[in-house]
Design brief:
88% of the residues lie in helices and 0% in strands. By secondary structure, it is mostly helical. The chain has one domain.
Length: 152
């Protein structure tokens, strides 16, 4: 019993740490669109590097999470990890621990959804910026060609 409770607690802790990292990633990511808009690509690269480090740290928790999930699946005889099924299979004395785990996961899901939306918006903004920059360069080349009499 104690070993399983410790696994549930460890899983909760890993998700909690991952949640905090994803919140930090969201904060860093919110800076991206402003930097893209201002054309501050050097600063954007710094922000992206910071974000990459946070993502790597969040990913490191993933292996631990998978291992703990697999151990709980095996212990309770489930076909795969499912918190509702785990709550049904687990005895009453695990229910408070599983409720705490459910609370963390419930908080994590909307954060991940926000990050996905943010990432799509930032990618779209960057693509639009790059298209504008390419169009501007093309126009500058044409103007330079006309100035030197090549008439592109």
């Amino acid at each position: 019993m104690r070993e399983i409770r410790e696994k549930i607690t460890s899983l909760n802790q890993a998700y909690t740490e991952q949640l905090q990292l994803y919140k930090e990633i969201g904060e860093v990511g919110s800076q991206e669109s402003a930097l893209i808009e201002k054309g501050q690509l050097d600063r954007l690269l710094q922000v992206l590097k910071t974000k990459e480090g946070l993502l790597k740290r969040a990913g490191e928790h993933e292996q631990q999470i998978r291992t703990l999930q697999d151990q709980l699946v095996s212990h309770f005889g489930l076909s795969s990890f499912s918190l509702p099924q785990l709550r049904l299979a687990a005895p009453e004395y695990y229910q408070d621990d599983l409720a705490a785990l459910n609370a963390v996961i419930s908080e994590l899901v909307p954060v991940l959804e926000e990050l996905e939306t943010q990432e799509r918006q930032n990618e779209s903004a960057l693509n639009a910026y790059l298209k504008r920059a390419q169009a501007q360069q093309s126009e500058q080349r044409k103007q330079a060609g006309r100035a030197y009499g090549r008439g592109e």
